UniProtKB/TrEMBL annotation:
Pfam families for this protein: TPR_16 (PF13432), TPR_2 (PF07719)
Keyword presence, Transferase: no
Localization per record: Membrane
Family statement drawn from the similarity comment of this UniProt entry: Belongs to the Tom70 family.
Positions of TPR repeats: 38-71
Gene3D superfamilies: 3.30.2010.20, Tetratricopeptide repeat domain (1.25.40.10)
Name the UniProt record assigns to this protein: 4Fe-4S ferredoxin, iron-sulfur binding protein
Membrane-related topology note: Single-pass membrane protein
Amino acid sequence: MDQLSAHLDRAWDLVSRGDFSGAMRSAEKSLEIDPDSPEVHNLMGYIRAQEGHAEEALEHYERAIELDESFVEAMLNAAEVCIHPLQDWDGAIARIESALDWIEDPEEQADAMLLKIDALLGKGDRAGAAVVVNALPEGPFESAGIAFSIGRARFETGDVRGAEPWLRRAIEKETRHAEAHYYLGLVLQERSDARGAALAFLHSRHAEVRGGAPAPMVSSETFERRVQSAIGRLRENVARVIEGALVIVGDVPGAEVVAEGVDPRIPVLLDDLGAEDEPPRAGRVFVYQRNVERIAAGPMELEEEIARSITEEVEHVFPEVAGAPATESEIQN
């Protein structure tokens, strides 16, 4: 093995362990050996993306593509950065289409097309995404991940019936596939199969908990402070509903709650509700850190996401709050 390959292998090994600073040191040594190596620039782009430096990551990916116009991996990596966090949907689609010009393997084609579907859905083009879904290769695919992604894509483009067999196929290949169980639960909900949905959600929760928690964006203490700050910025009519409520911060909803049909990925749950003939009131507010972090763009957006999630839950449980006119102080603010 030559020196460049040794540094590259070392860097990717460190990436797999989550040691991005160590990986970057190895990548920089690789760059000293060959400044025009597309593999090195792709590696550096990947590391920068993992560290949250999207623009710099994109520069490295673009340099890798300049050095090798057929470098599909760099094109798709660049597309992923365009989708998240940059939300440059058209940029992502353009890079994916360039990659598809070079891809011949059906499984790799499906992988790239699924990424294009994500970009189209992000852009709000559900009809365009459905066209791509219907053009996907039929397989069979060895990967549980691709089977799941096709099922999810079909569900998100409105093909509930077509989603179910793909999701079940993913679960057959990987019985603890939390995402596949979760989307199967959503499919069964759409079919009004409450018992089946609850079981699927329980399987999803169990698989996720057994799989170990991802590293949190912030500590639990910091998250609790963000919750209190978020409550302080709620609209007056929303804040009134939870005034004096016990606020409980947890990780994910408990199994007993999920068994009753609650979505295991709900970020906020109201409990101990007032009587129907009383003003809207909740005595307990559960805020689930893992589920909030799942949908927040980053640590700086946590407070905004918590406030939005509390507001949505309050308005869902008490529709009359959603329709209430703004108070004079809210109008002035």
